[in-house]
Amino acid sequence: MSKTASTNVFSEIRTILSPEINLPKSLKINTRLKMDGLELLSKIPEETIPIVFFDPQYRGILDKMKYGNEGKSRGRARSELPQMSENVIKQFIKGIDKIILPSGHMFLWVDKFHLCQGVSNWFTGTNMDIVDLIVWNKKRMGMGYRTRRVAEYLIVLQKLPKKAKGVWKIHNIRDVWDESIMNKNGHTHTKPTDLQSQLICAVSNEGDVVVDPAAGSFSVMRASNQANRNFLGCDVNG
After folding, report:
1. Considering the entire predicted model, what is its pTM?
2. What architecture does CATH give domain 23-235?
3. Residues 5-28: tens digit of each pLDDT
4. Backbone angles phi, psi at 95, to 5 degrees
5. Domain extents for the chain?
6. Which range has highest mean pLDDT (62-66, 81-85, 104-108)?
């Protein structure tokens, strides 16, 4: 083997294997569970899950900018969703940190406001660190007093020990991802299925369990099925 090949940080082979998971009967795989996400996280055995998606519902930009459109169309739909305080978000992240196996990943959806304000304090006391960022171009106009928002952001975190070789096996995923949502299924926070499916394939093996404790539109469930993975997730609205 050449020196270049032996020191290459890239690998298309995932050497980390997920352990078998013994779940309580109340946690059914590949089902739209109606329950509190913190309860779901508390029932999953520690360090068994390779990948978790988390899309917290927070008021953030609505409270700070006071757009005044909460009684109209998209603004009303967004404001009527159950809201998470920063303390609740931190509880979710601690629960996620507990169930992720070493060198596993969490993908955290944030908007421009939280990206600029910073979310590093959400991870205090956990074993996770930020390793990458993906910009999702939604290809539709959003709110904004000055520039109009067309993007959301996916922060990539990895549980210690941080490493890419033997863990992340797909290397052509763009960090700016164009994907339109054709069918939102009536949910204001639907996320891009194809992007999430690619990320699932990158950091897990077929048959692994993908967790989403705040599933919303259950786009992660569709992405998991597309990637031949098992889905375990819930939403308070089912």
Report:
1. 0.87
2. 3-Layer(aba) Sandwich (3.40)
3. 445 667 788 999 999 999 999 999
4. -65, -40
5. 23-235
6. 104-108
